[in-house]
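Question: I have long wanted to understand how a fold can be written as C-alpha cells. Here is the record:
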Amino acid sequence: MMRRLLLSLTLAAGLPLAARALPPVPPAPPVTLTPDRPAAPAASTAAKPDARLERGRYLAIAADCMACHTAAGGKPYAGGYAIDSPLGTIYATNITPSKQGGIGRYTEADFARALREGVRADGSHLYPAMPYTSYAQLTDADVGDLYYYFMQAVQPVDAPARQTALPFPFNVRLSMLGWNTLFLDNKRFVPDPTRSAQINRGAYLAEGLAHCSACHTPRNALMAEIGSQTLAGASLGSWHAPNITSDKVSGIGAWTDAELAAYLKTGHVEGKGQAAGGMAEAIQNSLQFLRDDDVAAIVAWLRTVPPVRAPGQTQAAFSHGSAASEEPLLRGMASATERHSLNSGAILFSGYCASCHSASGAGSTGQSYPALFHNTATGGSTPANLVSAMLFGVERKIEGEEHEAFMPRFDQRSYVQPLTDEQIASIANYVLKQYGNPEVSVTPAYVAQARSGGEKPVLARAQPFMLPGGIVGILLLIALCVWLRRRRQVKK
C-alpha cells in the first residue's frame, strides 16, 4: 500500500508515416529547406542520394525534434533547451551521436526504447515532456530510419546537456515506472481499414510524429491525457492550446481545408488566427517543412476527430468583433504637463498597440500585424493567448516570407517598455470589449499568474506538502506497527 502511495505521490508531469501497410514515407524536402543544416556546397558530380537518410531527416522534422533538443544559439540537437513544465524546469538531452555527451553508444534497440517507452539506455526513465506516449505509435521501419539519420547525419557534440533537477518527489525518476503502467499505451499504429489511406496517413502523422494531443488534450490530476477530451483544448502554462476537434463552434469545423493547410504551413490565416508560443515553434521548426500531401492528410484526419463543444459556447472565437476606433476622443484629453496620463485601456492601447495594429484594430496592410477582431486570440473563451502574447511577444519565421512575424514582449524583459500587471490588464480588457469577446475580462492577478507561468496543476500545488506528508505517513505507519505488536503481546 505504501509503495502504491509513494508512486502516486511521485508521478512527474509532461507538458505538449504510415504503418507498414501504408505507402512508404516520401522523400524529404531539399536539404536547403531543412532547419537542421545549411545547404551543401555545389559539387561538380552529384553524389548518389541516401534515401534512408533523407527519410530519417524528414521523420525528425515531422516529429519536431529540433524544437526541444536545440537550445537558443546552441548546436543542433545538443540539448539544453529549457522546458518550463508545471513541476519545474526540464532540460532536453543531447541526442547527437556523441559517445561522451549524446546517444552515440545507443543501439537501435536502445534508441527505440527511449523513443517509444521513455527509458534511456542506462535504464533511467525520461519525463513525458518528451512525448514518448505519442511516439509509441511509430513503426519499426520509421524508428530505424530515425536512428540511421541521427547516427549518420547529425554532427556529434561531446558536451553533455544541462541536467534536470526537479524538486522532490518529482526527481524520483523511478516513479515514472508507475506512471507508465497507468498511462502508457505502448502499441504501434494500426491503419483503420474503414478509412482512406490519406486519413490513415494523417492520423499517423498527427497522433504519432507530430504528437498534437500532447498539447491540445487536457490532462487529469496525474498529468495524463484525458482520452474522452482528445484535442478539446488545454492549458500550457500561461498559453492555451485551442480546441482542434471538428466542432464548428468550439473547434476547427468551420475552417476550410485551404485555411487549415495555410495555418499549418504559415501559422497565419486572415480572419481566423495566428500561431504564437509553442505552436509558432512547431510551425517554424516542423510543420512548414512537411510535404503538401502530408499537410492535406493531417487536415483530412482532423475532419474525422469527434467534435467536442465547450459548455455554453454558442459563437466561434474567430467571429467576434469589428473595426472601431476611439482615437479622436483621446485627443486633447490631457494637458502637455499632466502626469500619469496613461490611465485607461484606450490610452494605453493608443500608445503601445495602435501603431502596429492600427487605431481601429484592423491591423496592417497585408496583415503582417494582424487584425484584433475576427481573431481567435481575442474572441476565445479564455484571455490566455491575448495576455501571453502581450507579455512574451510573438516570433515566427517562415521560409520564403520576406518578413518574419514579430511582436515585442512587454513583460519585465521588454526592450520596448515593460508594462505592469495593471497596464496589461487594462489593455487586454479594452481589446476584449472593443474587438473580441466582451464576456471575458482580465484582472491584474490573472496577469501576474500568467507572468509567473500560469495556473499550477494539483500536483505542483501539492508538492510543498509531499515531503512532510510522507514523513507523517511513515511515522503513522511505524506507530501502527508498534501498537499492533504490543496488542499481540498483551493477548499472549
